[in-house]
Amino acid sequence: MEAVKRALNRISVEQIKLELLGTAYNSSSTFLGRLDPRMLLIWYLFFAITPWFVYNRTILLGMFVFMVVTTVLSRVSPYIVFILCLGLVSQIGWMFLLSLFFGGGAESLLPMLTLTLKLSVISLASITVFSSLDPERLSDGLSALGVPDAFAFSLSYGYRILPTLLEEFHQILLSFRLRGQRPLKHGFLYMRTAAYYLRILVLVFYPLMLNTAKRSRTTVEALETRGYTYAVNNPQVKKLRLSYLEMQRRDWLFAAFSAVYVGLLFPLGTVFPNLIY
């Protein structure tokens, strides 16, 4: 219990902001971060779609192990991994309780395990790719694959501005706390304190959205002043912007290893379809 309290005390908005900044802008130091963004996005599409059509738990387990390895290589923030694990555990937990309510038993855990493996593979693939691509390379990779430039830039801009929004949220939250007063007593199960903070979170939402709209308008005006619309609609500018993208040896080796690994999983799953129960 003391270890849990010490871990919770180290969690703060500032620490989460630093972790987000590290995730968004420190990706080039990892092995996957040096790969071509086009190859990474195609790799991600395969592992985001294929698990939905696979029901062999041996194949799904093999994909899950591969995703765990790539997640470690990506040096994903522990906070992101914790949120992922919390979501998966809570999801399978309430589904199991719901099955018990309708007369199910322990045998209902098996199909839930299959679903959990599917979601784990897809989630870890998403974390791996988006932790390995900074906003600029993500936008360039999408644009090179034929995604409309406006959508690619919007996704990159939202990814880039997330730490800024978190910092602004923290500042507005502190201002509300300075001008308000916490309940003198926590109440039963800290219900008064929880209600106080929930009310502040609702109130913070409105100025945060207003400031975000102002910031977005300023960004649009700055981009138009620098000729963003002309650059987006000019093929020569796009070609020059994407000229640094190049498939190298490590990209082909990673793609070949992934293809061979997944290719071996299917005959293994055919031979051992019930490797896990």
Provide a short characterization of the protein structure.
With 277 residues, the chain is mostly helical. The protein has 12 helices and no strands.
How would you characterize this protein structure?
This protein is mostly helical and about 280 residues long. It has helices spanning about 1-10, 15-25, 35-50, 55-75, 80-100, 110-130, 135-145, 150-180, 190-225, 230, 235-240, 250-270. Helix 3 packs across helix 7 (about 135-145) and helix 7 runs antiparallel to helix 8. It is flat, with a radius of gyration of 23 Å. The two termini are about 35 Å apart.
Task: Furnish the topology, listing elements before pairings.
Elements: H1 2-10, H2 13-25, H3 37-49, H4 57-73, H5 78-101, H6 109-132, H7 135-144, H8 149-179, H9 191-225, H10 228-232, H11 235-241, H12 249-271
Helix pairs in contact: 2-8, 3-6, 3-7, 4-6, 4-12, 5-6, 7-8, 8-9
| Approximate helicity band | over 70%
Q: Which percent band covers the strand fraction? A: under 5%
| C-alpha geometry | flat
**Distance between the ends:** 33 Å
Name the helix and strand elements from N-terminus to C-terminus, one letter apiece.
Answer: HHHHHHHHHHHH
The whole-angstrom Rg is 23 Å
Biggest β-sheet description: none
Kindly name the structural category: mainly alpha
Low-confidence parts, pLDDT < 50 over ≥5 residues?
none
- Indicate the mean pLDDT: 80
Number of strands: 0
Give the helix tally: 12
Transmembrane segments: 41-67, 79-102, 109-130, 187-209, 252-276
Pfam families: CbiQ (PF02361)
Subcellular location: Membrane
Organism: Paenibacillus tianjinensis
